[in-house]
Amino acid sequence: MFDKLKVVVDLISKNNLDGILLTSEINRYWFLDFKSSWGYLFINNSGKSIFLIDSRYFFAAIKEIKNVDEIILLNGNLKNKLNEIISKLNIKKLGIESEHCLVNEYEFLKSLNVNIKPCLTNELRITKTKNELDKLQIAADIASETINWIKEIDLIGKTEKEVAKLISIHMLELGASGNSFDPIVASGKNGAIAHHSPTNKIIEDGDMLTIDIGCIYENYCSDITRSFIVGTNYDPEMIKIYDCVLNSQLQGIQKIQLGMTGNDIDKICRDYIIKNNYGQYFTHSTGHGVGIQVHELPNISPNSKFIIKPNYVFTIEPGIYIENFGGVRIEDTVYIDEENQVHILTKKANKNIFQKN
């Protein structure tokens, strides 16, 4: 069973610390399974934990949080209270979240009675628990079902913005609490822009349409992309490009193994596209982690040294983007289990090249 406390204590040991302070909403939620906009979570090298919270969340925290030793209400000077906690936990060297700590917060923390050491904390969230995988699966199902639903609608004549709005509403109707990012709806030549923002461009017969969407379900994200041809008046070159991207992506997924690096997976996808003479048009990394944030660790990129381990959740999303012509991207969210079995969270969304078959 995955033990979050052990992961934190291991990080403390790895960085030669006496304890760590989690102040970011993301990391606090990950550990506590409790959402609050403010709070100081201390964990020391023996695994003892104290959560300092204000009056807005105190009674809810007492009721809901099960995995900390003590919950303290802030009822006085913040600096004095933090120093009391640091002393109580016997922390001399305290790790802080280098990825999330703002300059003013860093200056404040340096004024405490402790030595401060920035350390990388996002890696705490890289391995997902069963509960997290279940939430990620539901978020993926909502986005996948929305892709299938939008492909059944007559899209010719609608604007990119109209389609983006329909997608957002439908995901809410299916149980999402919101988008994990603004939907990307890119038609025709706009498909050459990897992170295109929807415009008032009208979707036309023959357009290759790229839709990249995701939603949030119980604070966990999904991310999926499908490209498909709308109508019948299309350029045959788009078939060739689509097949290249699809085969690149399928190879990347099929060849994932425990112990590979992010670079290894990126190279599988990228080499296939290069071999088919489109290498210069694959202009971004192959993938990224997905969890509480839609972009997190591990990175699946040419320089990634992350070793793939069980229950790392990440995307595989090669693409080809040709200026003044268009583009194709196909993205699935996957993980590999302890038996080396790959699971595709977004497998319910069809990959048919044509909108309607």
UniProtKB/TrEMBL annotation:
Keywords: Aminopeptidase, Hydrolase, Metal-binding, Protease. GO terms for molecular function: aminopeptidase activity; metal ion binding; metalloexopeptidase activity. Residues 135-338 form the Peptidase M24 domain. It comes from the Bacteria. Signal peptide: none annotated. Transmembrane segments: none annotated. The lineage of its organism: Bacteria, Bacillati, Mycoplasmatota, Mycoplasmoidales, Mycoplasmoidaceae. SUPFAM superfamilies: Creatinase/aminopeptidase, Creatinase/prolidase N-terminal domain. Residues 8-119 form the Creatinase N-terminal domain. InterPro entries: Creatin/AminoP/Spt16_N, Creatinase/aminopeptidase-like, Creatinase_N, Pept_M24, Pept_M24_MAP, Peptidase_M24B, Peptidase_M24B_aminopep-P_CS. This is Aminopeptidase P family protein.
